[in-house]
Amino acid sequence: MSEQKIRLRLNRLREKMKEYHCAVCIIPTGDPHQSEYVGEHFALRKYFSGFTGSAGTLAVTEKEALLWTDGRYYVQAERELKGTGIALCRAGAPGEPDIYQWLEEYLKKQDAFGFLDLLEHYSGEEAGLPDPGRDAAGCIAVDGRMISVEMGRRLEECAKKGNMLFLWQMDLAGETAGEQMPPMEHGMIFALDTKYTGMTSGEKLAAIREKMMEEDVDGHLICTLDDIAWITNLRGRDIPCNPVFYSYMYIDMAQCYLFADPECVPEELVKELSEEGITLRPYEQVYETDQYLDEDSLVLVQPDRMNYFLYKKLLSHCNVKDGFQPSEYLKAVKNRTELEHLRETHVRDGAAMTKFLYWIKHTDPETLTEWQAGRRVDELRSRLPGYLSPSFDTISAYGPNAAMMHYRAAEENCAALKKEGLLLVDTGGQFLGGTTDVTRTVALGPVSEEEKRCYTNALRGMLRLQNACFLKGCTGRNVDILARGPLWQQGIDYRCGTGHGVGFCLGVHEGPHSIRWKMPAESREWELEPGMVVTDEPGAYETGRFGIRIENQLTCVLKEENEYGTFMAFEPLTLVPIDLEPVMPELMSREEIGWLNAYHKKVYDSISPYLQEDERRWLAGATKELKP
Amino acid sequence: MSEQKIRLRLNRLREKMKEYHCAVCIIPTGDPHQSEYVGEHFALRKYFSGFTGSAGTLAVTEKEALLWTDGRYYVQAERELKGTGIALCRAGAPGEPDIYQWLEEYLKKQDAFGFLDLLEHYSGEEAGLPDPGRDAAGCIAVDGRMISVEMGRRLEECAKKGNMLFLWQMDLAGETAGEQMPPMEHGMIFALDTKYTGMTSGEKLAAIREKMMEEDVDGHLICTLDDIAWITNLRGRDIPCNPVFYSYMYIDMAQCYLFADPECVPEELVKELSEEGITLRPYEQVYETDQYLDEDSLVLVQPDRMNYFLYKKLLSHCNVKDGFQPSEYLKAVKNRTELEHLRETHVRDGAAMTKFLYWIKHTDPETLTEWQAGRRVDELRSRLPGYLSPSFDTISAYGPNAAMMHYRAAEENCAALKKEGLLLVDTGGQFLGGTTDVTRTVALGPVSEEEKRCYTNALRGMLRLQNACFLKGCTGRNVDILARGPLWQQGIDYRCGTGHGVGFCLGVHEGPHSIRWKMPAESREWELEPGMVVTDEPGAYETGRFGIRIENQLTCVLKEENEYGTFMAFEPLTLVPIDLEPVMPELMSREEIGWLNAYHKKVYDSISPYLQEDERRWLAGATKELKP
What we know:
2 copies of one chain form a homodimer.
Chain A: H1 3-19, E1 22-27, H2 44-49, E2 57-61, E3 65-69, H3 74-81, E4 87-90, H4 99-108, H5 116-122, E5 139-142, H6 149-161, E6 165-167, H7 172-177, E7 190-191, H8 194-197, H9 201-215, E8 219-222, H10 225-232, E9 234-235, E10 247-252, E11 256-260, H11 267-275, E12 279-281, E13 298-301, H12 308-315, E14 319-322, H13 326-332, H14 336-361, H15 370-382, E15 387-390, E16 395-398, E17 422-427, E18 429-431, E19 434-435, E20 438-443, H16 449-466, E21 469-471, H17 476-489, E22 499-501, E23 510-515, E24 533-536, E25 539-542, E26 546-549, E27 552-562, E28 565-572, H18 590-607, H19 613-622
Parallel strand pairs in A: 1-5, 3-4, 5-6, 8-13, 11-12, 13-14
Antiparallel strand pairs in A: 1-2, 2-3, 7-9, 8-10, 10-11, 15-18, 16-17, 17-20, 18-19, 21-28, 22-23, 24-27, 25-26, 27-28
Helix pairs in contact in A: 4-6, 14-15, 16-17
């Protein structure tokens, strides 16, 4: 992206802002469904900033532009913003104001605008408009569909304090970009057979309605695409790496409406849905709340899973109860059928990863680039049965690039590999039988003592968590230190969570549980439960030098019930050898070495039938027992 | 205590209850200061139940009596309640209703009483009386001074639901016991020199007023004796094992009133107090709020550190802001002077404990009882400079008795020791230079494989926490699994927290921080901070068989500040050898063995100068390096 282009785009946006007396235009990363991965149609933040990371918020004023992003993206954002005039704000860094703090300060310094023209623009808009007040000084604009209720509330608060209108009903950035954004994807929707899901959508609806009765609500509105895909047992192709389709859903005790593009639903599916009690309606009709909602209904919504625009719409029409979406918890606890498929999928996925590792260890690195290595992984995986797509863009990062947690190598702009140092590969696939996510860091030749020490401590942490035993009632916060401890002892921290939930043929990041030592403010901690799937991915990231991450997917299992309570443990789903070359066994305890050996034995036993003879021989060596 | 006596006492109470149409009389464990250890004058729950544990609540109805106590006391309470007709309710056990749930259910089943007589009794009482309503059926009685605000609120709620009056202004149990309770202790108050405290009371008041300004309050009322002793740098003798004195304190921006028995404060202290800005007033005058409080004052109180009676009094008189007592946090973070004294105190305390261990290892156990062993510890400690008293009743528990976490051996009723098995000794002292609390479990001869395994895993947990390294921002919940992990792996849990704060020449249990994996509902987690003192005491308690606990006191220290944040660690304050006889080194990692050896070296180097030659020689052997 040329810096020139970005500057031009920002200036066009500023012209549009002037029309609306807009002091600050905020462009979040988002779509109307609070999706983590955003389709190109909605990628306005990228369009106006050039920053390609998966998280970030751009704020544009008359003279300035600022982009907030988190620790995973500091390095990448710094590089991508260079020359654009956009200032990088390091979200979460000590002393750095967040966007709300910045906004308040900024608005304090603003002179008043006139606001009469503004009112003209609003005429014709319906209820829910900000009350201009006597002396409002202009407006803060954000497309209300693209932000969460929480963000909307906080921006509203900032606007109020700054004596500004809050304009959330319009999309200034989208109007500026206009035709330059690709149209919204609407791919054909297909069914995921009950042999994979283990539950019919009717059964899932019944489980949700049971929770709704506990909450004493009449209805429940859902925005999030993975929840809707899970409930309906349907999958789509609208967002890269996420087999979901654009939709909303409304459930009450008698009806269930699926708002989706009718052209994308094959006729036989419409019939099948109807048999499960689900009625199809056009996608945009969700905003016509009077068509499906009584005024006296009490509707359950989860504010951080709902777009602000729709929430305001609901508020103006019926009664709203803030709470948790039952489907988020229900889909996190995998059923026996899902777990069986997951185990099988991971064996195949592990075999593909093992083939990749064999290949990279037998190829001269100097003939390869990061991008080529990544493409090889994707190719090997794409040949597997039930494969749909990657579950995220494979990260293939060599040397210092691996210090960027979410680095993305471009074909025409990436590092060449050498016969030394570490290559980090973080990759996964969407399969009919589940979603995979694995990271391995491999030595391409000699590595430094420091790299080995970090690698070994990341490995120790990964093994400690994978082999944890804990009482039911523990959350991810209780166990996080197991993964982080060895690196903390070394004075190193990875500035992100240790692990996240993973969907079943759905989002590679899925709630409600996670493994982290600190929770974001006001977010709830969820107990780990048997059947939950979670990643275990400690790492070490030394800016400008190297990056290491070792990641397995685990599932939580019941271990023992006795007089002290219910003890739980993890079972590794990921079955991929861990490179022994950078391991310093002298840093590991006998117990840790035992865990590594046992894991490697399981990997070999499970994977080897799917390998060719030379690969199998190599795997036998790569998983050989370490001596304490 | 004879069961007969208990039954008689309960029946006399029931007569009193009848007079007041009292359906349920609740007798908590407490004094008006929310003290953990309660002076004999207030020990009504013990008087009416015979149960001697430090925590429990008795509920008496016309026909029943029930006692709630927690996991530490299940075994002891079962024994002590036998024959009294009082039913034991296991607080915290799955499916067991708590007192509020029980009360609601019980009241549902009650017939209506008349209430006219009751109103007569109330005549002459002032504002704050329950509104009898039209159809109140009787009352629930509890002495409002003896319960926390939280408990009062919940009982009030139960009474309301059950259509009962809530009678908190009278003390039915106290009136019944009458002269049989010993009078309230009022010992002479003395000053703790600034050379120990490191801060004058004037400086402490300034720090508190700074927090009060942040909270935007006019005044602050304190009930808790350890906070008042800390603020005033005074100590007393009113509660066994706690060098505190009965008092209240009110602080506003101009004045500070200490409500205490003037006869107990030497004249020169009154003068010194006044120089620090503290005015002495009679103890009971705290209830005359109009004497020191303006009606429009906003007063900060911490509801769970305030008695319900005084809280109601405040509410009827001025504005109240619920919050945290600044002194609770301020006193938890020990200053440099306190830490220096603590280190020195622990060296002497450790030497006394070592002398005890030498003695017990060189005495024929069959000539001793638990009580004699405990007395020996107390004697040895009492000879140390600056000694005031034990910091709690020494627990000396042999074999199966040690499974009772808070067992207390009586001289005339305790176990004889044998040449086998484990003796658990949990003991501590109050010194001018700080408060100690240490537990060691020692083998008196052969011990079983299972005992050894539990002992070794408790030790591993103790060492893992003691040697933890963690980022600032961690609370006790983040690190608890380090101590608990090895026992959890074995399928064993100790049903209590891992550690508690410790006062400086004050309560042996002190907040606000703690180390536990689960927090009590609605309690706040506090970050660990440099200077905080905390115990580290994992254990294994196998009912009817054995009990093990290994406890060190730690202080939190700054380890390293770097780009990742502030790393912290613990320094052990306790310096007492850990019995190696029951250790199974083959269960320990090299790292753990290294930690044990380093700790033992520190113990030997610090303690040996204070020992006699034969003791020193023994210590050298008892702290010898273990080989991995």
